[in-house]
Each structure stands twice: as structure tokens, then as C-alpha cells.
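User: My collaborator sent over this chain with a note saying "see what the structure looks like." That's all I know about it. Can you take a look?
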Amino acid sequence: MEEHSLKVEAKDQGIRIDKFLASEYQDLSRSFIQTLIENNKITVNENTVDKSYKITKNDFIKIIIEEKESEIKAVEMDLDIVYEDQDIIVINKEADRVVHPAPGHHNDTIVNALLAHVDNLSAINGVKRPGIVHRLDKDTSGLLIAAKNDKSHKSLAQQFKSRSVEKYYYALIEGNLAYEKGKIDAPIGRDPNNRKKMAVRKRRSKRAVSRFKIIEEFKNHTLIQVKIETGRTHQIRVHFSYLGHPVVGDQKYGAKNDLNAQRQLLHAKKLIIKHPATGEKMKFEAELKEDFKGILAKLREQKI
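Assistant: Without extra context I'll predict from the sequence alone. Here is the result:
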């Protein structure tokens, strides 16, 4: 069972509760939220409401999600393991792999592969997401850390929540930047015109900060390193699309894809954490995947 709670701020007053919660909890569809309301699994100030209820300042909303127990199969798959001990496992995720089971992906996820490789994973996130502390988009490659026990999970989750984890990505973007390095501080919320996308917007958004520096420049493309100080959905993809430099291959956010990339060329390159058991500072790095390296090689040939 999952339980969530939040307090309504003045800026959100007057919004229908189903619309508000769908914006706050981007993994939950509006129809699913409406079902929860109908089943009295969502309360406001400990009272049940209907889906047309309009929230007011200081309303205390509580959500209960009862997950149906279902067996997740352990499926033998190749894992590019960067580090492993009795508490954590760190992998270099492939670009075409979903992290945990979801509609359309039941037996081909990272969780399925981890269950086949590891005897135990933390149970904090329930039966569908054992061990999963953070996520990467399906077509984003790179470093992903999973917890083998609940103690490690709680420690890592707190590190991500407090933003003490350092996360660095490599991205190949379209065009050339005017500055060698910089900071993007632009709030991100759900795109009002397309609920499957995020966008930079002033209202109904959360602060999002990305720091970048140029790694390598090409004629019409740039390889950059991005350190994200916040973890908003699609943050890097949205920020650089907003600047007019979408990530190569990311057609959802406007890439022309003149390099014929089969996915967005975004890779979680470096991760710095404190080990959940020892407290030791640990740095992990993951090599770029072959498709990413192949396109960089072609761009370098054009420079000669």
C-alpha cells in the first residue's frame, strides 16, 4: 500500500481536485485518480469528496493506493554492472529498457533482470518496484542504482530527496551554444496542451535547475555535460528544448533528428552518493552506449 499526503498552497486554490492531483503526481492518470476518489481512497481534511471538489488553501489531502499483489517474474537478461555489494547494485542501463513493470512492459524491465540476478531487493516501493530508488526514462541510458535492503533504500531515498546526490548527464544537443557553461533556472510543469509532455511555464510548475558545460563542439551539434540540481520529469530534455537546442533524437521535444538517432542521446554519466551502510562518498561513472559513441564518431570524422 502506498500513502501520500500534501497540503494545498494558496496558488492552487480553486482547482478541481482530480486535475490538481494529476498535475502533482505525474505517474497517476486523471482517470485513475477519479477512480480513487469514487472508492473513497482520497480524502480532504479526513472527509471524502467527489471529483468535482475544488480545493482551497490549507486543505490536507490524503491518498491511499492499494497495490494488487502480483508476482513479478525474474527474467535472465544481460546487466551492465558497474558496482555491486551487499547493500546496493549500480548498473549502466541500456537505452531501450523500462525500469519497472508498467502497461505493455511486464517481463522485459530492469526489475525483472535484477530479480534474476539479486537474491533480495528492498520492499519499500512495493511488489512492482522492488529496490528502485530513482528512475531513468526508457530511452535514456546510464547509471541506475538499486537498493538490496530497506535500510539502504531509506538512506538513498533521503539523499535523493535532500538533493545531496550529485547527478551528471551527457547529452548531444542540436546547434551550438553561445556560452561555454551556464545555469538554466526555469520552472517545469505539465504542458497544458499535451498531458504527455512537460514544459517550462510560470504557473502550476516547480523550480528546475540545470547547470551545463560544453564537452565538445561540432559544426551543428554540441556535446554537453549537465548537472541537475532538481529532478523534474524530462528536465534536461525540456530545458534544452526551451533554449532552442533539443537533445538529438528527442522528437517529442522538437528535435529534427538529422543524425538519424534511434532515441534521445541522453546518458546518465556520473553519480556521486554516500554509501548507505558506511557513509563513504562513492563516485560511479558509466561509459556511453555504442549508439551514442557511434554518432559522436561520425561527427568527429566530419570535423577532419
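A starting point for your reply to your collaborator: Residues 129 and 140 are 18 Å apart (CA to CA).
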